[in-house]
């Protein structure tokens, strides 16, 4: 999917409210980066959640509420990434429908 | 890059940390209610929460001190059944409130991400 | 300190109070025991409670919280040094040469008060366990 979007001159794609607004109008070429960063963030948060859960289960003194919150953060970040991807795909499809 | 704004969640997580830490102190006081010479310990909860609100990022652990003005028994123990029992209930409720607020904040962010779906 | 460790802490306190109750109950049961396998009347015992050393429940000693959240344990079961009570009863099988029988220096009222106190402390620690348990359950609710 990312291969087909690369290099596409898209601007003014509207992201959701939770997204940092200064990034909303970043032009093309940035999309693969954007998605990669989103994936990295999700990855990072999921690893954190995993560590915290392990701490709790092994009895290393990890707080249960911290582990639960870390899981939710990872989940939210994942959902955001999904939405970003969906918007990118939708924008691409819309452009590809245009007749030049 | 696009990121989820977790400032409120982080603040709430620290609040939950404080509450569960205080709960530990209370449980410790209760467990030592019959120990000769044991002095009740606690934190200034209000002050610690204010500290949290003012600078959410780097808060070192809360300050724990011996509690003043408690009646002392002949063996030196000053743990009050009433005080600890009351605080036990109170802290439990505060924790529950914190959890509720975390859930609501998560839900709110979720709605924002998913366009209200 | 995490909730599971706090659960442990209260659990150990319950153990300590239970041991105390056992010793007091033994005193009550043996208040009139004039003869024991060791010879002589039953010797009253009591428990010594001692605060745990810091950090006994896992977790580093980095913070004031870790250093100040301490549990309790019974450090020793101590025999009472009080001399036995002597009553004059020459007909008693355990009477000595002068007709005196040695009875344990146990005051049943005192022991009852001690037992009631142990029960109350036990209840308070049980309340702490309930609270901790409910907080753990609530934490899980974050995940819906």
Strands, helices and their partners?
The complex is a heterotrimer of chains A (100), B (117) and C (144).
Chain A: H1 2-5, H2 30-58, H3 64-97
Chain B: H1 7-31, E1 41-43, H2 45-54, E2 64-66, H3 81-113
Antiparallel strand pairs in B: 1-2
Helix pairs in contact in B: 1-2, 1-3
Chain C: H1 3-29, E1 45-51, H2 64-68, E2 72-79, E3 85-88, E4 100-103, H3 108-140
Helix pairs in contact in C: 1-3
Radius of gyration of chain C: 22 Å
Oligomeric state of the chains? heterotrimer
As for the number of domains of chain C, it is: 1
Number of strands of chain A: 0
Question: Which sheet architecture does the biggest sheet of chain A show?
Answer: none
- The shape of chain A, in one word, is rod-shaped
Order of helices and strands of chain C: HEHEEEH
Helix content of chain A: 55-70%
Shape assignment of chain C: elongated
Largest sheet of chain C: 2 strands, antiparallel
Structural class by SSE content of chain C: alpha+beta
Number of domains of chain A: 1
- Radius of gyration of chain A (CA) equals 17 Å
Could you characterize what this model shows?
The complex is a heterotrimer of chains A (100), B (117) and C (144). Chain A is mainly alpha-helical and 100 residues long. Chain A has one domain. Chain A has three helices and no strands. Chain A has helices spanning 2-5, 30-58, 64-97. The longest helix of chain A is centred in the C-terminal third of the chain and has 34 residues, at 64-97. Chain A is rod-shaped and about 65 Å long. The two termini of chain A are 22 Å apart. Chain B is mainly alpha-helical and 117 residues long. Chain B has one domain (7-112). Chain B has helices spanning 7-31, 45-54, 81-113, and strands at residues 41-43, 64-66. In chain B, strands 1-2 form a two-stranded antiparallel sheet. Chain C has one domain. With 144 residues, chain C is an alpha+beta fold. Chain C is elongated and about 75 Å long. Chain C is 45% helix and 16% strand. Chain C has helices spanning 3-29, 64-68, 108-140, and strands spanning 45-51, 72-79, 85-88, 100-103. In chain C, 29% of the residues are buried. Chains in contact: A-B, A-C, B-C. The interface between B and C is large, with 35 and 42 residues.
């Amino acid at each position: 999917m990312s291969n087909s979007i690369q290099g596409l001159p898209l601007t003014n794609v509207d992201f959701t409210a939770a997204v940092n607004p200064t990034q909303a109008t970043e032009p093309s070429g940035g999309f693969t980066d954007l998605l990669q960063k989103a994936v990295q963030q999700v990855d990072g948060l999921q690893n954190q959640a995993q560590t915290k859960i392990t701490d709790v289960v092994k009895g290393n003194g990890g707080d249960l509420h911290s582990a639960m919150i870390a899981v939710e953060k990872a989940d939210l970040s994942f959902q955001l990434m999904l939405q970003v991807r969906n918007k990118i795909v939708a924008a691409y499809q819309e452009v590809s429908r245009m007749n030049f | 890059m696009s990121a989820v704004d977790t400032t409120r969640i982080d603040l709430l997580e620290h609040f939950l940390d404080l509450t569960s830490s205080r709960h530990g102190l209370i449980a410790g006081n209760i467990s030592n209610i019959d120990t000769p010479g044991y002095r009740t310990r606690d934190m200034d909860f209000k002050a610690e929460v204010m500290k949290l609100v003012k600078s959410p990022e780097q808060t070192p652990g809360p300050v724990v001190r011996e509690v003043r003005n408690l009646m002392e028994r002949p063996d030196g123990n000053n743990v009050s059944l009433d005080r600890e029992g009351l605080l036990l209930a109170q802290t439990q409720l505060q924790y529950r409130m914190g959890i509720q607020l975390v859930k609501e904040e998560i839900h709110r962010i979720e709605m924002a991400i998913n366009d209200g779906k | 300190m995490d909730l599971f460790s706090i659960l442990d802490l209260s659990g150990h306190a319950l153990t300590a109070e239970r041991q105390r109750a056992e010793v007091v109950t033994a005193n009550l049961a043996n208040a009139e025991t004039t003869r024991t396998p060791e010879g002589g009347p039953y010797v009253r015992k009591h428990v010594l409670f001692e605060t745990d050393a810091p950090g006994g429940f896992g977790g580093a000693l980095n913070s004031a919280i870790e250093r100040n959240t301490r549990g309790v344990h019974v450090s020793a079961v101590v025999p009472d040094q009080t001399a036995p009570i002597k009553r004059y009863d020459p007909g008693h099988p355990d009477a000595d040469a002068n007709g005196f029988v040695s009875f344990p220096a146990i005051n049943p009222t005192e022991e009852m008060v001690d037992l009631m106190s142990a029960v109350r402390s036990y209840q308070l620690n049980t309340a702490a366990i309930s609270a901790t348990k409910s907080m753990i359950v609530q934490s899980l609710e974050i995940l819906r």
